[in-house]
């Protein structure tokens, strides 16, 4: 079913001459069987990209290749893809079975075979018993699953999901996340998934394309984009982050097999620390990223290597975690600590921050948008 | 007769223990609703229900050629139109004209309405205003306009003969063809308005979804767009049907006396022969025709889930 592989080459969409392009010379390779998330804030071009791949929108330039065949100008109904829309777009004048059978009918699959495949698809989304229902009688989660079954029953070359979870409530969203992922892995359908929700992307995707201003800022596995963000935008968009401007001093050793090095860095107003980054950064100025939960917080000066002393300025309790903002000199650092059943730290308490060198990462690049603006 | 059904009020969840309070609120609400409905109901009563009842009563009276109305209770006024082949023909012609005008009007209005309903242009409002702008001139004026255009020496005939396509001018006025052409154009704005409001379930995403599932443009139209438009098309047909079988001006003027439908017949009976009871009976027959088509309409809309 999934022989496909997608390459997007220099894909560009300009809605009107003179306007900034919505998608700007985008390049991407998607491996067979992968689920790739297009992640970014609204207006970053992720939906435009998906619609161009689907054939619902003509690109201004560039090409789209599926299974080694160029399909850039193939009409939507000849692409053989399956798409799930944000609003599900179930046909209101057809019942559940008729909705799911629609694609098979268009392919003139024999009736008996249609019936079997529709039943199998409905069973796959665990709604085999609802075949005769009208779509408007179904809940949001059920409609979502019907839309998924309708897209998958035609054994699409690519499965395209346009923010499929954004209309569901938080609890259901998490269930559907797991379900979509497990169905995707069972069918091995190569999938493009548009979302603005970083948790969704991290949880479900094999690869994440973080988009901003019509460009891919970074394309990598969830761990890569989270642990090794290429740009300030990526670090800031995925998870929370503290940013510090650091003067990179001497290299102090090889960090790992990926060729990264440890450095001594100096942050104005805070002092000297250990950090990790790609090779060859010595003598430059780079941004340092530290995730709040990687910052060690203690309420008493511990034995660790020269912790930073500060004052708690804000406390936010969410049940399973306690977020604190600690003022150190002129800097305000976000940190997280596990909640304890005893007394919780209060605003004004002293706090001591420390981190391991491998948790302080030097960003390698200023960012694609910044690069474009500079160019 | 409601053409556009009001959306059902959302049902409020009700907890048992708040029953008492709830009932009191409901009583108060009901009183408010009644108070708000009262002026409209009174207006309807005075201007619609009473005259209608009066007309029905009138239809059982005895008319006479000299215009004297005898208060009585007779079925003669009904027996005559129901037994005389002439009135059968008039009734059938009326019905046929309503259906023809309704179908043609829906056919020519549909592309315009579909375009307007789907348009995302910033000029959409202006375009809709232009589409219904003909309503600014009265049907009488437009009928005279059509008489000029369709007449023996009118625009259509002089162009066709000038081009050498025909030798003798076509007969387009003083017959049903002319009446039909005129009525179709006159009722287009109503049809377009009824359709636009009836196309609520149409959405570009549904058409895109059908396309992505392999439907060609033609299949998208026949399997998705058209079925979703059906409620609007039916409403428009009903509206145009009702308007055209009850209209008098256009059949009279464009028909030039040779087109007899119920409306012109009622007019003749009322003002020419002064036989009001008979005119009233014909009006009741016209109402029954309305009722019939509305019953069919409601059955159809229920079937297609509009």
In short, what is this structure?
Chain A has 375 residues and is α+β, with helices and mostly antiparallel strands. Helices cover 24% and strands 33% of the residues of chain A.
What can you see in these coordinates?
- The complex is a heterodimer of chains A (375) and B (306).
- With 375 residues, chain A is α+β, with helices and mostly antiparallel strands.
- Helix content of chain A is 24%, strand content 33%.
- Chain A has 3 domains: 6-234, Rossmann fold, CATH 3.40.50; 240-294 and 355-375, Beta Barrel (OB fold (Dihydrolipoamide Acetyltransferase, E2P)), CATH 2.40.50.100; 307-354, Nucleic acid-binding proteins (OB fold (Dihydrolipoamide Acetyltransferase, E2P)).
- Chain A has 9 helices and 20 strands.
- Chain A has a 6-stranded mixed β-sheet, sandwiched between helices. In chain A, strands 13-12-11-14-20 form a 5-stranded antiparallel β-sheet, with no helix packed on it.
- Chain B has a single domain (76-305), classed as MetI-like (MetI-like fold), CATH 1.10.3720.10.
- In chain B, helix 8 runs antiparallel to helix 9.
- Chain B has 306 residues and is mainly α.
- Helices cover 72% and strands 0% of the residues of chain B.
- Chain B has 12 helices and no strands.
- Chain B has helices spanning 19-58, 76-83, 85-118, 124-132, 139-150, 155-162, 176-198, 204-212, 217-246, 249-255, 262-272, 276-303.
- Mean pLDDT of chain B is 87; it is low at 1-11.
Looking at the overall shape, the CATH architecture of chain B is Orthogonal Bundle
Q: What is the helix tally of chain A?
A: 9
Note the beta-strand portion of chain A. Answer: 25-35%
* CATH topology (level 3) name of chain B: MetI-like fold
Low-pLDDT stretches of chain A are none
How many DSSP-defined strands of chain A?
20
Which CATH top level class of the largest domain in chain A fits? Alpha Beta
Beta-strand fraction estimate of chain B: under 5%
- Report, as a whole number of angstroms, the end-to-end distance of chain A: 44 Å
CATH class of chain B: Mainly Alpha
Shape of chain B: flat
User: What is the domain tally of chain A?
Assistant: 3
**Overall geometry of chain A:** globular
Q: Helicity level of chain A, as a percent range?
A: 10-25%
Order of helices and strands of chain A: EEEHEEEHHHEHEHEEHHEEEEEEEEEEH
Structural class of chain B: mainly alpha
The average pLDDT of chain B is: 87
Strand order, sheet with most strands of chain A: 6-7-8-3-9-10
Rg of Cα set of chain A: 25 Å
